[in-house]
Amino acid sequence: MASWLSSSVFVGIDHIADAIYNLSTKSLRIFRIVVSRNGPPNKGSLPEELMSFSVPYDLSMGGSKEPWAEIFLAKMQSKWGKCKQTWRTLKMEVSECFPQAIAL
């Protein structure tokens, strides 16, 4: 799994204050990459979150239809194709998160 994420960008420790500010003052879109494991047909596989990230709402008005989101999902699906023996499905879910007060 680590090799899947090696080309992804994460918030570094020096940007934590900015991330907290965004959570408390801006609406965000939460993008989740969800997978289901392969298994016996009689045992259903519950979806598992592989990774998630947020984008300021005003920078992602199209949600999963944004060109960058479609490219990202296509890249993840091409990597997922190498692991079909383990994973049944891979999909992107998008939800909104509205500003909230955060107590530190």
UniProtKB/TrEMBL annotation:
This is Uncharacterized protein.
